[in-house]
Amino acid sequence: MPADNIPSRRGIQAGVLAAVLALAGCGSASNSALGVAAIGDPADPFSTGRSAPLAEQLVRASTSEGLVSFDEKGRVIPALADRWIVTDDGLSYIFRLRDGNWLSGDPLTAASAKQAIDKALEDTRDTPFALDLGGIDEVRAMAGRVIEIRLARPMPYLLQLLAQPELGLVHKQRGAGPMRLERDRGAARLTPIDPAHLGLPAIENWAQRTRRVDLRAVSGPEAVAAFNDGAVDIVMGGEIQDFPLTRSVGILRGTIQVDPVVGLFGLQVMNNHGFLADPANREAIAMAIDRDGLIAPFSLGGWSPTTRVVSPSLDGDLGTIGERWGNQSLDERRAVAAARVRRWQAQQGGQPAAPVSSPKADAPKRPLQRLLSRGGNTPQPAALSEHAPGLVVWLPQGEGSDTLFERLSADLSAIGLRLVRSGDKDARDADLVLIDDVARYPRAAWFLNRLSCAERRGLCSAEADARAVEAASAATPQDRAALLTEAEAELTAANVFIPFGTPIRWSLVRGSVDGFAPNTWGWHPLMPLAWVPK
After folding, report:
1. CA angle 483–487–488, rounded 5-degree value
2. Distance (Å, rounded) from C-alpha 5 to C-alpha 244?
3. Alpha-carbon distance 229 to 238, whole Å?
4. Spatial CA neighbour of 96 closest among 23, 162, 147, 32
5. Would you say 266 and 513 are in contact if contact means Cβ atoms under 8 Å apart?
6. Predicted confidence (pLDDT) per residue in 56-68, tens digit
7. 167-208 pLDDT tens trace
8. How far is CA 368 from CA 344, 413, 504, in A?
C-alpha cells in the first residue's frame, strides 16, 4: 500500500485511546456495570433505519421482547408468552401471554399484543426478513391473553423467527423490557427492569442480583484495544475483516469465542456485463478459488468450505446436490477456467480488457487504470498479461479483508483474470461484492430468499425464485424439499453467487463473564449478561 494510503500510527493510537477512555467511563471500571463493545459505527445503538446493525439489534431485543426470545445458548425461551402449542397440521401456533403489564402500566392483553405484532410485521415489509415471514397468514386475538398465529403453510422455524429483534413488541412506543434504555455520551446504558414494575412477581434482592450493561459501538481496532486495556469485558460482532486483531489478545485477558454459524459467505455477482455475461465465465471464477487456502492464513479451526449455495446437511436437505467439481483437482479446475478466459479474450479480438462495468446500467464506465491508481492495495502478479480481463471486487475495510483480497487476487490471476479492489465504502461500483450473512434459521429457504431477485442485491435467477415460490405452497414436506432442491440447482447453474464456506463470527469474552455461550445463530442477548455472577 502506498504511504499516502496508510493512516498514521499516532492517529490510530489516539483514536483507540479516546475510545478506550470513553468506554472505561461508562463500562466495567465499576463492578456495578458490564462493558460491552459491539463492532460497528458509533451511531448504531440508536439507529432507526432498516439496515439493523448489531448494536441496534441488541438494544431492541433488550428493550422490546417478543412473544419468545433467545437465551445465551440460542435456544427459544418464553418472553411475553409463557407457553404455546402447535396444532398437528403445523398451521396454527397458539400462545398464552404471561400475566403482567406493558411498561406503560397498561395490561398485557391479546388485543394489545395483536396490535403490536401487526405493527412489527408491517415494519418488516420490503425488507429481506419479510420473505422469511411470508407464511404468516393472520394474527388473531382470542381469549383475554391468548394469541393465535395462523399460517398459510407450515413454518417449522416460526419460533426462531418470532425471537428475532425485529419482532420485539412495542406498545405506546415502548417495549416491555426486560431492560430499560438510557443514553449517556453515545453509550447505551441498559438496566434490568424489576419484574414488579411489570406486574410480575417480585424477585428478592433484584438490585443486588443484576447489573447494568453499558453498550457502545466502535470500530474493530478500538474494540479490541478496549478489551485488552480492561475497559470492556466483551467484544461482539467480530467478522473476518477484523479477525487478525485477535492476535493481540493474551490468554490471561480472555478467550476468543467463535460461533458455529451457517449462512452466506462468498461473492455476489453484481452484473452480467463483459466477461460476466456468460454463466460459464462466472463459473470459471468459482472454479479458480482455493477455498481452504483462502482461510488458511487465519488459522481458524472448524471452518467449513463449500462450493454449494446452500450450506450442506441442513434440515430438509435431500442430499442430491453435492459439492461441485468433486472429481477434479484444483489444478484441473483452473485449467478449464483459464481456457474459458482465453476463449473470451479471443472473442474480444485480443484487445486490452477494461473492467466490467458498474452494476448501474446508466453509470459511466471507469477505466481500469483509474481504479489501479486509486486503490493502492491492488498489487498484481508480474506474470499477469496486460490484456487480462479486469474485475472490481468490494470487501470491507480491515486487515482480514486485505489478506482475503491477496488470496483471491492470486487465485484469479492463475486463470488470467485481473482483480482490482474497490476503494469505495459501499459496493455500488463493484462487479463482485462480499456477502457475509448468518442464517436466521437452518433451512434452504433462508439462502434462496437472500439471493432472490426481490433482494435486489445483484444478479439473480427468476427460475430459482419460481421454484422457491412453488415450494412455499407445496402439499407435503417431501414435495417442498424437492422443489427447494430444484431451486438450488437453478441458482447454482446461474452462477450468480460464488460461495466460500460458512461465515466467521467471533467475540472476545473475559474469563469472569457469565451468561455468554457460542451458538448457531451468533446471537448473544444482553439480559443473560446482566445477572451478577454468583
Report:
1. 120
2. 20
3. 18
4. 147
5. no
6. 999 999 999 999 9
7. 999 999 999 999 999 998 889 999 999 999 998 899 999 999
8. 18, 15, 31
